[in-house]
Amino acid sequence: MSSNAIHIDVHHVTRVEGHGKILVDIDKGEVKTVRWSVPEAPRFFEAMVVGRDCTELQPITSRICGICSIGHSFASLKATEAAMGVIISEQTRRLRKILNHGENLQSHVLHVGYLALPDLFKVGSVIPLATTHKDAVLLVVKLHRLANETCDIVGGRTTHPIRTCIGGFTKVPAEKELAGLKARFEAAIPDLKTLAGVVKSVACGLPDFVRETEYVSLTDPAEYALYDGMIKSTDVKDAIPVDRYLRVTNEYMNSQSTAKWAKFNRESYMAGALARFNNNHAQLSPLARAVAADLGLAAPCYNPYFNTVVQVVECVYSVEKTIEHLNWLLDKGIKNEPASVKPREGRGVGAVEVPRGILFHDYTYDKKGRCVKANCIIPTNQNHANIQKDMDKLVPQFKDRGKDELQLMLEMLVRAYDPCISCSTH
Amino acid sequence: MKPRVAFFDFACCEGCQLQVANLEEDILGLVNLVDVVEFREVLTGNAPDYDVSFIEGSITRPEDEARLKDIRSRSKLLVSYGACAATGGVNKIKNVWGNIEKVKKEVYGKDAGMPHLATYPTKAVHEVVKVDYFVHGCPITRSEFLKVVKALVFGTTPDIPEYPVCVECKMCGNECMFDKGGVCLGPVTRAGCNAICPGNNVSCEGCRGAVPNPNNNAMHEVLAKYKLSVDDIKRQFTMYALDPEVGK
After folding, report:
1. B140 touches chain A (CB under 8 A)
2. N or C: fewer beta carbons within 10 Å in chain A?
3. Which of B45, B102, B197 is opposite residue A162, by nearest beta carbon?
């Protein structure tokens, strides 16, 4: 088919979380319309939490997202703890980091294995791959199960953690359970190497598309930042304190999306695994660095499709770090630590890196500990404008490939961002 | 022929469909039992009609109501799964405001009047269309979901508990949350979760909805015993839209 007239209308993009639409119109070779839009129903979480007790904010805001409920729980707890001056113990910090890694692993394996890889094997879902590439699929399932069971054992439930609370945990795992996990994480390393090999074998199918943009993530002098850190942008020399996040996110509405968009120094910026890699790659663990090199990844990487490849590298990082935290806990011994909070008036901001990027919760409480104002800024909101800008460059560049290939490239682009659209219309 | 099954979602976190993905190896068994013909988050493709539709999420807009009615008209059986679909879930907290314009303004500020942000008070799925079966919980319990699917495939009625969470809590040997100083909705909430929250030292929040014919007298007795009032639990009732009849 010639590129003279192309009409693409995808609603809704499949194999992503939530409802997104792609509209492209090319007439007589001229690009008339390129639009990424989100029609999903907003849920109004920032209104839901107003008037609620501080102890209810984590269980409510966890429900913003089924895939990153642990990340939302931590952004929420960190905001409340900042507002009320609660200091957590080293044991709590380590247990939270294990959950953070468990969720990253769960989400990344789901995205790479179930949602992104079918495109590279040219099938519509993982189901046919269960027959044609059974070993690879069983490996993905095994890693996914390990990640989920980690969240079960530490958080009390895979999705929407039960034990996480202001100041700590309502119940801690037994040492025997942690020792069992450690053995399984050690055994997961060769499995991840195999998965990386599968991804490497088909990564040549990722479009050769490059667009440099602003990359925003947390950064932490101590480690490749996920649970803690300050805000880092590739366009700004110094890291920015988390409580000044509004300077970075600048959310705004437009008519093509029920989800807010964000911009910082340019018209758009990118959050997520690729942004973390570009900002903090030097701090990756040794094996994660080796896997990155083997996958041909070098920072800075400006190809958004490689977000999926970076996710594989981050899986390795999460496994290595989880083993480190499990060793610490097993060495020190785990104990019940009563957690409590004395409500007080104030405002607090919590930020955490979740699978799709940097997440902020910002709460203001009255003196009884009731929420009077809330703001939640989700990674996918920070990526919507960047997806649009990528499409604006991609469509003219590849319009001669014809409708089918162009449409697949656009769908794959959206999938590469691993968007959490329901989350972004919270 | 295998039943042709589809999954759809409305306003929700999609955490319940994630529980389906979280069945891990059991999914491979599941696709031997049923033919999954439409499931946007997992596969590319669609179908004209379905033997069983699984609906996740709440209804908050006229266009979603129309889409749900269309799905219903093309489905032999319809299952409402997860708290957002089954009771309205946390999405119904916005109804507590009583004024939808204020809710919109709180979130969208000066842009609240934009036409594409229109919303109405949250409805559960059965408040819009006929529902044949429910899978409760936030999120759903994977084993219960499998139980419902198997029952539908074999043409039997799934056995869903009609007793309160307290029964399971006692069977688990958990210490009562009231004894620990908590305020728990276990006495009036439908069981089936194996009392997972009290088992983790957290009070039941009622995510599985009210048990049929809740024993309000017993709830009052429990409150009196622990010197609590109905007001102490009222806000908790709004978390998962527990039946307004409960606690009267």
Report:
1. no
2. N
3. B197
| Phi, psi dihedral angles at B120 (to 5 degrees) | -125, 175
Rounded CA gap, A244 and A204, in Å?
A: 40
Tell which B residues from 24 to 83 touch A, by Cβ distance under 8 Å: 24-25, 27-28, 31, 36, 40-45, 60-61, 64
Query: In chain A, which residues have their Cβ closer than 8 Å to the Cβ of B24?
Result: 141, 144-145, 148
Q: How confident is the model at residue A1 (pLDDT cuts 50, 70, 90)?
A: very low
Q: Cβ contact (<8 Å) for B43 and A144?
A: no
**Phi, then psi, of A89 in degrees rounded to 5:** -80, 165
In this prediction the ipTM stands at 0.96
B174 touches A at CB < 8 Å: no
Segment holding A32, helix H or strand E: strand A30-37
Check residue A116 and report its DSSP letter: I
**Residue A250 predicted with pLDDT over 90:** yes
Query: pLDDT by residue (tens digit) across A297-353?
Result: 999 999 999 999 999 999 999 999 999 999 999 999 999 998 989 999 999 999 999
Tell me the C-alpha to C-alpha distance, in Å, between residue B21 and each of A240, B41, B228.
Answer: 38, 10, 41
Nearest to A153 by CA among A141, A140, A162: A162
**Which stretch of A275-279, B42-46, B61-65 has the lowest confidence by average pLDDT?**
B42-46
Residues constituting chain A: 426
Is residue A338 a contact partner of residue A198, using CB atoms and an 8 Å limit? no
Phi then psi dihedrals of residue A327, to 5 deg: -60, -45
Question: How many angstroms separate the CA atoms of B9 and B148, rounded?
Answer: 18
Instruction: Kindly state the tokens that stand for A421.
Output: 């659209």
| Residue A121, Cβ density class (10 Å: 0-12 exposed, 13-18 middle, ≥19 buried) | middle
Beta-carbon separation of B18 and A66 below 8 A: yes
Measured in angstroms, the CA of B232 and the nearest CA of chain A are apart by: 12
The phi and psi torsions of A100 (rounded to 5 degrees) equal -60, -45
Averaged pLDDT for residues A70-75: 98
Q: What is the 3-state secondary structure (H, E, C) of A295-333?
A: CCCCCCCCCHHHHHHHHHHHHHHHHHHHHHHHHHHHHHC
Identify the weakest region by mean pLDDT among A346-350, B111-115, B157-161, B240-244: B240-244
The identity of residue A69, as a single letter, is S
Phi-psi region of B212 (alpha: psi -120 to 50; beta: other; left: phi over 0): beta
Please tell me whether the peptide bond between A19 and the residue prior to it is cis, using omega within 30 degrees of 0. Answer: no
Q: How many whole angstroms separate alpha carbon A167 and alpha carbon A120?
A: 44
**B247 pLDDT higher than 70:** no
Distance of CA A334 to the CA centre of its chain: 29
Structure tokens at A416: 């590469």
pTM for this one? 0.96
Asked if residue A350 lies in contact with residue A74, where contact means CB atoms within 8 angstroms, the answer is yes
Which of A5-14, A158-167, A254-263, B239-248 has the lowest average pLDDT?
Answer: B239-248
Q: Are A15 and A126 in contact (CB under 8 A)?
A: no
Look at the block and give the residue holding tokens 């094996």: A287
Residue A236 to residue A115: CA distance in whole angstroms: 34
Label residue B248 by pLDDT band (50, 70, 90): low
pLDDT of B235 reads 82
Pairing of strands A257-261, A252-254: antiparallel
